[in-house]
Design goal:
Elements (H helix, E strand, L loop, with lengths): L13 E5 L2 E2 L4 H6 L6 H14 L10 H9 L4 E2 L8 E9 L5 E6 L11 E6 L2 E6 L3 E9 L5 E2 L19 H15 L5 H5 L7 E6 L10 H10 L7 H4 L4 H11 L5 E2 L7 H14 L5 E8 L4 H9 L6 H8 L24 E5 L1
Parallel strand pairs: 10-11, 10-12
Antiparallel strand pairs: 1-2, 1-13, 3-9, 4-8, 5-7, 6-7, 12-13
């Protein structure tokens, strides 16, 4: 039997950002094993992180800067929201022996007036008298049971590096990750395009959870119940395949195959397999594959928490037999643990 010739996919570049720093140049890996590397080996990584985190504009380092980098990277106390001051609303039924009276702007008056309301107009305002019960939502601030997470390095905001207009966090990470990966190739992207056809580039990148924050799905669903407004961007930017579309639209302008394969925590691997298949079958010469997740938001974390998936502070304290939670040790995949730890990250391979 003759041998079947199949093209061999090669990884020629990678990039992105996670809690340990930038993927390209192995900086994030070096940060994770920094305790066993020499000062000389770590110098470039400390310098890179110092610039990303806004701690230094030069290559000069000192102990204070390195300490700040260590404190602001890896798994740590959540920074993307305040776990001790989380907005929460409780349903309540207000009752009084006398009628309940309050004033509203006329423009805020409901379209459907409840039967037990009496409305008296007073210019631009109305006085409302309620007989019986009044349903209400009472605003409160609560402590979230999970305070550990893998936020990207403190002070780093990819949305400030390009014309980001109300882009979800995961898509801002996508733009940065794609640029980082292409810059790691060792040659200009335009040089590569000179040797291939325009449709010989595949892009497979997405998000297992789609985009869920105030600028995307979460904001769109919450707006009618919180007095907000749904924007024209929210629906489109919430799509799970949007990272691939953003790479095409903002970075490479490809006309090749674009999409994503969703598979929970294996989404990146499914996209990698799809890119490899395209190259092996001759459909593409270049494949960009990746995954973008920005789940360190209270909405998503509450969903995982109630199903028992996340390590809660009380459980971590019990593991350590301590009254103080050690956020740094929340992620223990190879030891006694209490659950998963959420992390923001975006990784791309070329």
């Amino acid at each position: 039997m003759g041998l079947i010739k199949m093209k061999l996919p090669l990884i020629v570049g990678f990039g992105g950002m996670n809690a340990a720093g930038r993927s390209s140049g192995f900086h994030s890996y070096k940060r994770m094993v920094s305790d066993v590397l020499s000062d000389a080996d770590m110098a470039s990584t400390w310098q890179d992180l110092a610039r990303r985190m806004g701690l230094s504009e030069t290559d000069s380092l000192n102990a204070d800067i390195i300490d700040a980098i260590k404190a602001g990277t890896l798994v740590r106390r959540i920074e993307s929201f305040d776990p001790d001051n989380l907005l929460y609303q409780y349903k309540a039924s207000l009752q009084s022996s006398d009628a309940i009276t309050f004033t509203l702007r006329k423009s805020k008056l409901p379209n459907r007036i409840p039967d037990n309301w009496q409305v008296e107009e007073q210019g631009s305002k109305v006085t409302i008298t309620v007989t019986g019960e009044l349903g209400a939502l009472l605003e409160d601030r609560v402590s979230f049971p999970v305070t550990s997470g893998g936020n990207i390095p403190t002070g780093f905001d990819p949305a400030k590096l390009y014309q980001s207009r109300f882009h979800p966090r995961g898509l801002s990470l996508t733009i940065y990750g794609a640029s980082d990966a292409l810059n790691s190739l060792g040659m200009d992207w335009d040089t590569i395009l000179q040797h291939i056809e325009p449709d010989q580039v595949s892009v497979y990148a997405g998000s297992a959870l789609a985009q869920v924050d105030e600028n995307s799905l979460s904001g769109m669903l919450a707006a009618p119940l919180t007095g907000g407004r749904v924007s024209s961007k929210m629906m489109a930017l919430s799509l799970a395949e949007m990272p691939a579309d953003f790479i095409n639209g903002y970075v490479i302008n490809s006309i090749g195959t674009t999409g994503t394969n969703m598979g929970a925590c294996a989404t990146f691997l499914y996209n990698l397999r799809q890119g490899m298949n395209d190259i092996q079958q001759g459909h593409s010469r270049v494949a960009i594959v990746g995954n973008a997740e920005a789940p360190v938001v209270a909405d998503i974390m509450e969903g995982f928490r109630v199903m028992g998936a996340l390590a809660e502070d009380a459980q971590l304290k019990a593991l350590d037999n301590s009254d103080v939670v050690d956020n740094r040790r929340a992620c223990r995949p190879f030891a006694e643990n209490a659950g998963f730890t959420m992390q923001k990250r975006h990784n791309l391979w070329c």
